[in-house]
Amino acid sequence: MNLPEFGVKKPVTNLMIFLGIIIVALYSLTRLGIDLMPEIEPPIISVITTYDGASPEDVEIRVTEPLENQLATTPGLEKITSRSLEGASVVSLKFSWGTNLDEASNDIRDRIERAKRFLPDIPDEIDNPYIFKFNTAMMPVLFVGITADQSYTELYDMIDDKIGDPLRQIPGVGTVQLNGGLERQINIWINRSKLQGYGFSILDVEDVLDRENVTLPAGHIKSGFTDYLLRIPGEFATPEEINLVILGKRNGNLVYLKDVAKIEDSFKEVTRIARVDRKQGIVMMVQKQIGTNTVKVAGLVKDKLEQLKKSLPNDVKVVVMMDSSQDIIDSLNSLKSTVWTGGILVILVVWFFLRQFLPSLIIAMTIPFSLLVAFIYLFFSGNTINIISLSSLTIAIGMVVDNAIVVVDNVHRHLERGKRPKEAAIFGTSEMFLSIAASTLTTVVVFMPMLFITGVTGIMFGGLAVIITVTLIASLFTASTFTPMLCSKWMRAENKENRGRNKLFSGFYNFSERIFNNLENFYANLLARCLRHKKMVIFGFLGVFIFSLFLVKFVGNEFFPEEDSGDIRSPLLCL
Predict the structure, then answer these.
(1) What is the pTM of this model?
(2) Is 256 exposed, middle or buried (0-12, 13-18, 19+ CB in 10 A)?
(3) SS3 for 20-74, per residue?
(4) What is the pLDDT of residue 573?
């Protein structure tokens, strides 16, 4: 039993299969993430090391070069670059597209461990090197500006506690970072002359503060069935406690830190200033977790912000400066309207040429079934609804009806010859199956090379090719099973007497019939002339082809001169 026979002879089973597809597709559609673009993870891993107070020369000699020597042996490495900055070293390792970055990260960690014996002391001099992998999903979803007048000095800690911490607990939120504002810090201003007069150095002050500002575990005490854990709190609670730190003893007298320094409860040095509405303030950046729905996360954050605003002082103003979810919604709504418009136009065009309602409806029903299969693929492959996926559906929406049109037309031909509906549906579809399969596979082959493109272009157009391929194969399956089943149930031999009952439709049918007959006659005459003058047609088309090549070369030289060809960049990169 082939597919057309299965579709016609097992209508209930066939209908249940497509109902199952609809249910799975609707479930997938509700679980799909929404984003502007597909997730792109460049095959680049950076090893970042901070070396506070060191010059770029010292960073290069003591940190960058030892790391480069060890990391250069990483398997699959294509290129290694480094930057030695003031107080920081950045070593970037580029791999080929398609490399498993998780395995590469493990190899890099092993080589970092080997390089540590050649690096300055950790953590006394440098921080432990860490690995950074960039992903487009790490782009901030929201930028929120916060200003205050009277509460500006306490704004940073207030926002971090009352807004930052609650937002970090929202599902899907990755990090919440604050930039700008005044961050509290205890400053110790050393009087160098007094320090030297007592015979101490700055290192002595640093060592004493490290020893005094600690909390130590002190074991445990058992009392009956209760076990009490003990600890000795030794961290500073107030600036006054820092004043009473003893540096040492000179001439029989104790020297306190307040004797050689001034303790100030102040703020960190301001290195970056954030302005919101021409006022100094704080910019809060919200990032989502990888794989989560950008629109959903942004919506939850904005709803939570509205609730948290009530707990802030009256002079604090919170403004959403940048909302990437709104751009995503606008772009996707535009593409959705395009999909709907394209689908409606396809149905109208099909109806205009067939001039029958039920055959047009049968063809139109192949569109949603084929597109729904694409959403199932997106869900199980871990992709999102984005510009690329919707663009591919927009392209495919005009292709998915081709197979159904051929099948319905051939079934209609068999009905006109007097066959019963079931026989016409089976034989009409079976005759055209190889033709529509070859036509579908021909289109699929056109998109297949896109799957072998590497880089960002491969991610973009590879996803487009896969979705179009899945949609076209789904349309072939629909046209081979669901379409003949509907044809056997709904289509009957045309009755010209019934057509005349509706004068308006009869007039439209007769008018369009004359137009189509004239087009067919014109095409038949033109084809006959071409066959009678074969050489003239061949040389004519050859001349048009040569002229087209000349025109393309002329236009290319006008817009892209050869002398400037070295400076031409890809339009995608320019954008």
Answers:
(1) 0.71
(2) middle
(3) HHHHHHHHHHHHCCECCCCCCCCCEEEEEEECCCCCHHHHHHHHHHHHHHHHCCC
(4) 31
